[in-house]
Amino acid sequence: MPLPTVAIVGRPNVGKSTLFNRLVGKRVALVDDRPGVTRDRREGEANLLGLDFRVIDTAGFEDEDPASLPGRMRQQTEAAVNEADVALFLVDAREGLTPLDEEIGRWLRASKTPVVLVANKAEGRAAESGIFEAFGLGFGDPIALSAEHGEGVADLFEAVRPHVERDPDAEEDDEANGDHQLKLAIVGRPNAGKSTLVNRMLGEDRMITGPEAGITRDSISLDWTWQGKPVRLVDTAGLRKRAKVEDKLEKLSAADTRRAIDYAEVVVLLLDATRGLEAQDLRIASQTLEEGRALIIAVNKWDVAEQASSLFNGIKAALAEGLSQLRDVPLLTVSAKTGKGIDTLLEVAFDLREAWSKRVPTGELNRWFEGAIEANPPPAPKGQRIKLRYITQVKSRPPSFVVFGNRLDELPDSYRRYLLNAMRRDLGIGPVPLRLEFRGRANPFDRARR
């Protein structure tokens, strides 16, 4: 799916190229005090606090003969706006409105492209009158911005987001049309029974199996359908401790398995019931969660497990201690040999993928946020309270959120954990990785790109 497009328009020398450079994160467009430096449309890939889009820097909009150079530049600007999902209309808050600003406003109102009005160069009191003047253009509240200093970028994010954020309904339609499968990777130590499990799922001896450890070397992707739902199964090579991996081919296989984890949506970590949980299993689980993938831990060979109840409880306790970053990771028992527990495993995998893809409506999210803060207010170091203003979800897969506020560098880790745990509990997100970042309002964009 192509990236949504944002076009930056306005009269010459209002700061369009400066904003373009800030959005793409580097000095790409030439910037100078002289008007008319930009002539062609310049395009780049931008990221604004997790929003990915294509941004177009346009030439200054001038009223000239179409055959002249300024006239041809204006035609390029018109073409950019027509193809964009949203246009950022920049005015200079320090200079105030000009007749050309008003002409551009009339032209934009006649177009079908949504418009976000931005009063640039808004730092300082000298810009206040120009910001108020911008209300008269008829595009609603102007975003007070300093593209040069990064002030107001959080407000720009909120204004642009409805126009460029991926539509979750469209993603669901893609899945319904078969364009999106559940990407399920089976990982674990050598000889845990990964290939045997894949063969049992497929109902055929698709993968070579045997008592020898390390038969599988490459990650093998297989398309499959379970109860009418498309699945892409990935069988991977066994992962041993790095210190024990000496063979070059095994090193390549291990790297291939790690790429499979990156590719997957849900990862099944397969344990061997005859060996229990080992330190390497915890390392694989931690890596999976750090990559933001949903995780299921399945204990294989359960049909031959000895003292099954105590084994299960022991593994559960070890996981609670070793995976403190995410509690209640699903722990299931299966038998690749008999097929027992496989349907339950797949049901949990699809449920986890749904939670991993969850989007919380902004209103519901902020009502929860206000309640969580009221129930347990942030601390007040040295008598000065930390102010948490609002929260927004910037993406899903995994669910990722940004909290805006001030003095956030003094917010203790315990309070951050409180918010994460309350979010999982109250919003029904469940045991999937969450991303929670904190941004100050002064200059959130620069910190977000690190």
Automatic annotation (TrEMBL):
- Residue span(s) of domain EngA-type G: 4-168, 182-357
* The entry's keywords: GTP-binding, Nucleotide-binding, Repeat, Ribosome biogenesis
Residues at which GTP 2 binds? 188-195, 235-239, 300-303
**Which Pfam family would be a valid example here?**
KH_dom-like
What is any one GO biological process for this UniProt entry? ribosome biogenesis
The GO terms describing molecular function are: GTP binding
Which SUPFAM superfamilies does the protein's record reference? P-loop containing nucleoside triphosphate hydrolases
Residues the entry annotates as binding GTP 1: 10-17, 57-61, 120-123
Recorded hits in PANTHER family, A to Z, give: GTPASE DER
* Reported function: GTPase that plays an essential role in the late steps of ribosome biogenesis.
As for family, the record states:
Belongs to the TRAFAC class TrmE-Era-EngA-EngB-Septin-like GTPase superfamily. EngA (Der) GTPase family.
Binding partners and assembly: Associates with the 50S ribosomal subunit.
Q: State what protein this is by name.
A: GTPase Der
